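Protocol step 4 of 6: record predicted structures for both targets in the notebook before any analysis. Target 1:
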Amino acid sequence: MATVSHQAFRMVTERFGGCDEYYTEMIHAPSLLNGGPFEKYYVLSGPVPEKIVWQLTGSRPDPIIQAAELVARLGGIGVDLNMGCSAPDIYKTGAGIAWMLKPREQARELVRGVRSVLQAAACARAEDAHGGSMHDGTAPGAPKPLRLSVKCRLGDEDFTDESFFSFTDMLVQEGVQRIALHPRTRREKYRALPRWQYVQQLADRYSRDGVQVVLNGAVQDTASALRAMAAAPSCAGIMIGRAAVQKPWVFAEIQAGLAAASAIPAETGNDMPCGFTVNLYDTALAFLDALKLYQPPEFWKSRWQRFFAYYCDNFSFAHYIKTRLLNAACIEDVYSLLSEYFEKVPEDRERTVRV
C-alpha cells in the first residue's frame, strides 16, 4: 500500500463508513529521524487519528526503535513493524521480509526495543492524564496502552513449519500483541490462494496468550471474506489492501454482505436484493481534492497513478481511461480526463453495489 494509504485515501474510504483501523504507509525510520522535507506527510493521522496504526520499516533496530518513540507521542492505536513486505527494492535493503530471514536475535532486539518504548510511552501518557499520580496505564480512565503488532509472511521459499512458528513464538515471547499474516512465501505471487490455514494455526497456538491474529491476502468481496473466515474462523480480523484501492467502499460492502448472509436461512441462498449506490465520478473527484490538500505537489502524480491503476477497474472502458490517467502530465489534466470520460460514458457514473 505504499503511495496509497495516506490521509487523502483514508478520507475517501471514510465517505463509505471506513474500517476499524488504518495502517499508514510504510514509514522509513531513518528518513523520519532525519527530518526530511516530506516526512511530515507520512505522519498525518486524519481524518480519524484514533484509528491510526503507525507502520515502520527499516533495516536496523536502532532507527526503528527511535522512530517508534517519536510516533508513540502522536497517539493512535499503536506501532506495526513491517516484517512481511516482499517487494524486491524493500527486501534487498534488509527491510520487510528480510527481518524473518536475519539471525533471530536481530529481530528479537528490534521487537524488544520497540515494546519497551511503547510501554514507557503508555506510562507517560497515563501520568499526564492523571496529573503525575499514575504509575502505569492500567487504572480506570487511563489512556489505552499502545499496541505492538507485526506483519509477516510464511518466510522464504524453503520455509518449514518449524522455522515459521519459531519466528512467531519469538514475537509473542517479546510482547507482540497482534500478528497480521499474509500466508504466502517471499516469492509467491497472487495467482494461487494464500494458505489461510496458517492463520488458523497461529490463532489456535496463541489463543491463551491473548494475541490477535489477522488474516491478510486475497479478500476483495463478501464471497472471498466468507471463504477466508471458513478457513480461519478464529482470526481476529481481515486486512484488505489492493481491493480497498479499487473499491474504497469494500469494507461497507463486506459488512453488509456478512450481515445479510447471517440473516438468511441456509436453504434460501444469499441472493439478496439489497445494496447501495456509489457515484464513481464523485469519489474520484473527492480523492483528487483530498490529494491536493494533504499531499505535496511532488507526490501528486505517483499517488494518482497508483490509485487509478486499481480504481479504473470499475469502469466499462478500464484500459482506455487508465492509460490516459496514468500518462496525464498534471493533476488538472486528470480532472479534465475524468470529466470527458463520464460525459462520454454517463452510465459509468453510478454503480450499484449488491450485497
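Target 2:
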Amino acid sequence: MSSNEVYKEKSKQTFDNEAKVYETSSNGKHAKKLYSSVIENVKMLNCLKVLDVGCGTGTILSELSNNDKINLAGVDLSENMINIAKKTLNDKVELKIGDSEKLPWEDNTFDAVICTDSFHHYPNPEKVLIEMARVLLPKGHLIIGDPWAMSPIRQLMNLLLRYSKKGDFRIYSQSEINKLFIKCGFSVISFNRVNYSSFITTAQVNK
C-alpha cells in the first residue's frame, strides 16, 4: 500500500469508527464551528448546484436542503458516515461513497464545491483540486474551510502529523493554499480566519 493510500485508510477507519458519535467528537465539534461560514458563502454566491466533498454525516447538506431551489450532492470516503447522512437526508440529496481524487460525477456538473474540515486529510491535494475543478461549471466556486495554526506551531503540528493515526496529512498556511489554488486552475477570491483554529477560503475556477 502506498503512503497516500495509508493516509486514506487511516482517515476511513477514523470516521467509520466515529460516525455514530461524530457530532459530539472533537473532530465534529471543530467542523461545526465552520458550518455557518460555509453556508453563508454558498448563499452569498447564489450557488444552486452544490457538491459537498467530505460531507460526513451531512449536517451542512441538511441545512442547505431547506432551500428547495438548490440541487445537492455529497461524497465521503467513509461508508458509515454516508449511511448516517442517508438516514438524515432521505432522498433530498444525492450521496455517494467515493474518493476525493476520483469524484464520481461528470465534468461541468456543479456551480459550487464545498469542503469542510476535510481538505487537510488529502495526501494528494493537487489531484483533489484538479478533480474539483473538473466537476465545476465554468466560473464555478470552491469553498474550503479547514484547520489553521500560526507559525511555528503549524510546522510542528505538520511534523507530528506524520505519526497521526487519524489520517491527518497537512495543516496549510494562507500562502500554501493560494499557491495550490493557482497551480490547479483557480483564482483566489478570499481567505479569512473564522477563529483561532480555522480558516475559510473561496476561489473561482478558471474555465
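Step 5 preliminary note on target 2. Helices lie at 3-18, 26-44, 59-64, 79-89, 125-135, 153-161, 174-183. The chain has seven helices and seven strands.
Proceed to step 6 after PI sign-off.
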